[in-house]
Write a structure and sequence with these properties.
It holds the Pfam family NAD_binding_11. By secondary structure, this protein is of the alpha/beta class. The protein is built from 13 helices and nine strands. Helices cover 52% and strands 13% of the residues. The termini are far apart.
Length: 298
């Protein structure tokens, strides 16, 4: 019999994940700082708590999905945080994208209370969160992973145990390097195709099945040429992740040349007030340099 499961953080990713836990038949307790975001889940059968502590008091396993490292720390250890309400033997599963170093520190603090911890960041955008097809990179004890696996299988289709605590977050930063560098390639290619007079839809169809194909090309390329900037993942959140990549790369002594360049391009777009647009709006920075918009009317 499964344990009652809590979910804290019902933003662009968390809402879809929590909904899939409900659809899988789990008894779910949710909390979100902006209470209105919990209303659709309440209507679908979730119990709504008034604090992270209240979630932890009712659940043996608690998932978190919030924006940045300080937000996770506040949810876990702030006033009315998870750590103040969870009984010994509980398990925290953090699906946020945050600092690997901070993740290891939180796990050690929770272990002092006999509470387990997994870092389990996810990839697949809002589409994957809604469909339950996320890729999940897990760091932590294998026994904790097996306890959490039924819930993880409700939200994702690829679950990979990367190693000890923090390794899931490091793998997610690898993912983010690949995402943004892929998007830069898509952006350059589409601007080039537009300048060369090609039909952009035919161009995507011609190359996506070959060696040049990628998730970003197939999923974000069509959005770009339609001028659809709805976020699967916002520029602001992507830029936060790139900050984490660059900080970790500095610690590791690793060059991240393309990632650094892309971070600068995103900063330009943020200064133009575009931080809430999807990360595929990266192309707008190149379009301004080229004086060309890679759009195509139906």
């Amino acid at each position: 019999m499964s344990e009652r499961v809590g979910f804290i953080g019902l933003g662009i990713m968390g809402a879809g994940m929590a909904a899939n836990l409900l659809r899988a038949g789990f008894d779910v307790v949710v909390y979100n700082r902006t209470a209105a975001k919990a209303e659709p889940l309440a209507a679908a059968g979730a119990e709504v708590a008034d604090s992270p502590r209240a979630v932890a008091e009712r659940c043996g396993v608690v998932f978190t999905c919030v924006s940045d490292t300080p937000d996770v720390e506040q949810v876990l250890f702030g006033e009315d945080g998870v750590a103040s309400g969870m009984a010994p033997g509980g398990l925290v599963v953090d699906t946020s994208t945050v600092s690997p170093e901070a993740t290891r520190r939180w796990a050690a603090r929770l272990a002092e209370q006999s509470i387990g911890f997994l870092d389990a960041p996810v990839s697949g955008g809002s589409e994957g969160a809604a469909k339950g097809t996320l890729s999940i990179m897990v760091g932590g004890d294998e026994a904790h992973l097996e306890r959490a696996r039924p819930y993880l299988e409700a939200i994702g289709t690829t679950i990979t145990h990367m190693g000890g605590v923090g390794s899931g977050q490091t793998c997610k930063l690898v993912n983010q390097i690949l995402v943004v560098v892929s998007m830069l390639g898509v952006a350059e290619a589409l601007v080039f195709a537009k300048a060369g007079g090609l039909d952009l839809r035919k161009t995507i169809a011609a190359v996506e099945g070959g060696a040049a194909g990628s998730w970003m090309l197939s999923n974000r390329g069509p959005q770009v040429i339609r001028g659809d900037w709805r976020p699967g993942f916002t520029i602001d959140l992507q830029q936060k992740d790139l900050r984490l990549v660059l900080e970790e790369a500095h610690q590791l002594g690793v060059p991240t040349i393309a990632t650094s360049t892309i971070s600068h391009l995103y900063r330009v777009l943020q200064r133009e007030g575009l931080g809430g647009e999807g990360n595929h709006a990266l192309i707008k920075a190149l379009e301004r340099l080229a004086g060309i918009e890679a759009r195509q009317d139906d």
